[in-house]
Specification:
9 helices; four-stranded parallel β-sheet; globular; 6 strands; alpha/beta
């Protein structure tokens, strides 16, 4: 039963994303255009497959959007700062807590948001060539990247670009909860 409701919800994403209201950032009572698609963490593979299906279909339809895997963003930031090997060594020798502490600065939410803003190709006026942003892979990037903190940081950088965050947990309209 739960699986059918997830499948039905997944099937509603594309029509929502391609709607005029979504693309014009309308329909949320003039709030910022961040949408959260929550799902049970154990359904991660199904959601990933659906994101792949959607992106292929929207590419064929000529949609201009940015598809961002947050775990890959973490790796790209570490690589760009030449911290990857040091991070692996820290984790192996000192454990997860030491790694998390060491990465708090380089992967601070505002830095991650800036990196994402650069990926969506904003012009000088803050306009994006992307119609919208799909953010996923948060479960793999957690706890280094936190959904709520990232959305707050992104608001200042890409607030006018509708954004969908795929969240492996629960969203009650105010709070993101890990399950």
């Amino acid at each position: 039963m739960k699986q059918k409701s997830l499948t039905a919800r997944l099937d509603q994403i594309m029509p929502k994303i391609e709607s005029v209201d979504f693309l014009n950032n309308q329909g949320l009572g003039n709030e910022i255009g961040f949408y959260v698609f929550d799902y049970p963490a154990e359904s991660e593979l199904e959601v990933r497959e659906h994101i792949t299906f959607m992106t292929e279909k929207m590419n064929k339809r000529g949609r201009t959007f940015t598809n961002i895997n947050l775990f890959e963003v973490v790796l790209e930031i570490l690589e760009s700062r030449k911290l990857t090997e040091r991070a692996f060594k820290t984790q192996k020798e000192r454990g997860d807590d030491a790694l998390f502490k060491a990465l708090k600065g380089p992967l601070e939410q505002n830095r991650v948001a800036e990196f994402i803003a650069n990926k969506i190709d904003l012009d000088n006026s803050g306009e994006s060539k992307s119609e919208f942003i799909l953010l996923h892979g948060l479960g793999n990037a957690w706890p280094i990247i936190r959904g709520h903190g990232l959305l707050n940081a992104l608001h200042a950088k890409v607030g006018n670009v509708p954004t969908v965050l795929f969240y492996p947990g629960e969203w009650d309209g105010l709070t993101l909860k890990s399950l």
